[in-house]
């Protein structure tokens, strides 16, 4: 890391909301690897128990099922915690009803518990990219989609709470991928290729896009959480550059030894599927990101924190495919 003198916040105990999801799981693993006692919080006790069985650290990991829309349950989970990581997602069709109440509940619960909050977010509030250079944290926020406007409103909820005495920071990530990241669009493509089945890829195969490897993102996020001067700001954690869908498919198929076709799906397909499926209908408005890629700048992070973890795509994609192949082999074995 850089040699800047910074004040580090004390973090002996943390709580991860949405710990059974892809980002939450990676955060829990990273925290435990750093010796931080961790509470894994989520809606499903069964998923949390599976997480605990997988990652071990029984003496340092506690699981707690609950409803994050109830600030008292958030506060109970965060009791004694120094930092609360909010990585809890929800299906697109529920955003209009629950996204802002969830943010408000998390911030209220964190304040009740006396914990700082790290919010994992995406790039939706920015809207379309306005120039050729990677976007810094000062990039204008001009969301032109419903979900982008909701995410911008969520940012206001978080930062208003920060100004009222509940320390918080926001980390923005591009699309992510990696082992145990089932809630990413790229995961369905890599999982199908790993199983040597026909696969679907969202968007054009010739458009270079940015993806961040989930374990890298978790390392960078946890590093930010330790930095006292990081709170009250938003931060970008980009991936290891950009890559086309064609190259992703090539690497994945080479690792899997697969030759089944990969079909692209775009606006027409989503419009048709959206007639019957609310989730597909909600995805359609975000397809501009597959056509006009938005690339993040990590300059602020590197200037104030240090080098960003950046697993090369060749390595990260192969590791993800191998993880899916191992899961398939285990399922056959059972």
TrEMBL record:
GO cellular component labels: cytoplasm
Annotated TM spans: none
Pfam families associated with the record: Epimerase
Domain named NAD-dependent epimerase/dehydratase: residues: 15-225
InterPro entries: Epimerase_deHydtase, NAD(P)-bd_dom_sf, NAD(P)-dependent_oxidoreduct
Tree of life domain: Bacteria
GO molecular-function terms, A-Z: aldehyde dehydrogenase (NAD+) activity
Protein name, entry field: Epimerase
Annotated organism of origin: Paenibacillus flagellatus
